[in-house]
Specification:
Glutaredoxin; four-stranded mixed β-sheet; about 20% strand
Length: about 110
């Protein structure tokens, strides 16, 4: 059986979102997610990506999503599981775990 790869992408910035004062920064959230997910799931089938929204991206898909963030005034960090937005602003693990379960990521034993 071939394992399906899951990609978790976090779009964020060094500066904390103005509407998210008191929340951890995007990079901290990215690292926290990796640790939390690694405790619950076997994460060898998970690929993590961090995209800084203040940097120009060579990948057109990432650049277009960054433009969407600014055009629609989305709160960051934004967490995607396989290109589906699962969290905006302050992420909730329950929502992210539900997306991982939906993508058949195996639980730790």
């Amino acid at each position: 059986m071939v394992k399906k790869k899951v990609t978790i992408t976090v779009y964020g910035a060094e500066q904390i979102c103005a509407s998210c004062v008191g929340a951890p920064g995007s990079k901290d959230t990215y690292e926290w997610l990796q640790a939390a997910i690694g405790r619950k799931y076997i994460d060898d089938s998970i690929q993590y990506k961090y995209i800084d929204i203040n940097e120009s991206q060579s990948n057109e898909k990432h650049q277009q999503f960054i433009e969407k963030i600014f055009d629609e005034d989305l709160f960051y960090p934004i967490v995607l599981v396989n290109d589906e937005i699962v969290a905006e602003g302050i992420p909730r693990l329950k929502t992210i775990y539900e997306a991982l379960d939906k993508n058949d990521v195996a639980l730790q034993v």
